[in-house]
């Protein structure tokens, strides 16, 4: 007969239980033994494959208490089997399965640069296609008043503009104030560049570094963080880490939603 053996380990010496977290694709985790931080891209046969911000892959065993998520020790587990149809889009809107893109509206949303346009497409693309809204990018806003005049917005062709670093007293603020059409809406976020609207945790850093005034912001960020000086490649790596609206700062989220609502509002 098997004898009972009591557990005499003092409570304070027992390891505390940690949460089990499904290794869903896109989840950003850190392997503390190596310091490798990356997004989950594959989970199979007791291992998980991570991809860091430079596209490097590493495979790790899914051991108990083997990873950290947002600074907390966790145990990664395989996600539930069987792909489920997403019920929401990347922007958080209710998904419309099988919805076809609407014929493009006359109205438009303008953003300052290519990176801005790519980020808006990544998160709001499904919504924009359903609504028939086209996003175009500008090369800066110095000529914004004449650009708005050339577009000639009206009740059935509204124009929304998203501006970087729209802070009272700045050049961008003064230019935005000069747009007076009731059928054009200029909004913006406080960040110097759209990169900064991505939450630091999404790209595996504690915070976006401060870049001295007068220096190129993107290149200054890359130097401060030890990233390659190819800002185009770095941006693509950042963009890959954005899975949904949860990876973006609310100061950007609210402004893009405001523009979509404005452009899609019924004509007067």
Automatic annotation (TrEMBL):
Where are the annotated segments for Disordered? Answer: 1-25
Q: Which residues form the DUF3097 domain?
A: 20-79, 108-264
Q: Which Pfam families match?
A: DUF3097_C (PF11296), DUF3097_N (PF22845)
Family matches, as InterPro entries: DUF3097_C (IPR021447), DUF3097_N (IPR053883)
Protein name as it appears in the record: DUF3097 domain-containing protein
Annotated organism of origin: Streptomyces resistomycificus
